[in-house]
Amino acid sequence: MRKTPSRPDDISHHGACKARRAFGLKTLLCAFACALGGVPAFACPTVEDLRNGIEFRTADGGKEIHRQTRPDWIVITTTFADGNGTILEAYQGLYLLSLIPIEAGVPNLRQREDYANSAELEQWQAPEPNKAWENPTPSGGQALAGPLETVLIDACRYDKFTVELTYNDDDTYRETYDYLPDLGIGLLTKTEASDGIDTYSYVSLRRLGE
């Protein structure tokens, strides 16, 4: 069973959208302020900003808002370029509990899908670099993490490591995330299924409430 929702490129009448946001001016202003010894005009989001939400923009014109609702649980609201989207709830910002589709801006609660229960998901360990672990429950699977590296999103650099997830109920499907330990969230970068491979990139971010 596919663990992630369709993206715009999964829908035949929607082509991939080009990124809409340019960052040259912001980066230039930040560099100018740093050169003068001042404070950069753009402050990078931190884990404390998850209370109000951190918004990420993707190269295909979509966006994701990651918000912490309780300890170790993240709600991710995605919006595609066509206005549709999903509401996802994930343990450790990575392991999916449920999905609610958004159609024309309105959540369709009757179409909610539950992939696991909280007790099963809490058997997943917290992600760590250079490790492999598994969750033996029916909705669990296997995880393989790469080495600690860094990633640059917009003008912000974060520690990150990749996490590959496969699932006990579908060994033909694989997800790859960039996990940002300082924020406690996972950014989906690739899905592999029997019908092909999709990749996603993140080009900007901002704290909500600014």
Characterize the structure shown.
With 210 residues, the chain is mostly beta strands. Helix content is 8%, strand content 46%. The chain contains two helices and 15 strands. The protein has helices spanning 24-35, 118-121; strands at residues 54-58, 63-70, 73-79, 85-91, 95-103, 106-107, 113-114, 132-135, 141-145, 149-153, 156-167, 170-180, 185-193, 196-199, 202-207. The strands form two sheets. Strands 1, 2, 3, 4, 5, 6, 7 and 15 form an eight-stranded antiparallel β-sheet that branches. Strands 8, 9, 10, 11, 12, 13 and 14 form a seven-stranded antiparallel β-sheet that branches. The radius of gyration is 17 Å and the shape is globular. Mean pLDDT is 83; it is low at 5-40.
DSSP summary, beta strand count: 15
Mean pLDDT: 83
Structural class: mainly beta
How many H/I helices? 2
Helix-strand pattern, N to C? Answer: HEEEEEEEHEEEEEEEE
Query: How much strand content do the residues show?
Result: over 45%
Rg, rounded, reads: 17 Å
Which residue ranges are poorly predicted, with pLDDT under 50 across at least 5 consecutive positions?
5-40
Outline: globular
N-to-C CA distance: 38 Å
Question: Roughly what percent helix?
Answer: under 10%
Task: Profile the largest sheet.
Answer: 8 strands, antiparallel
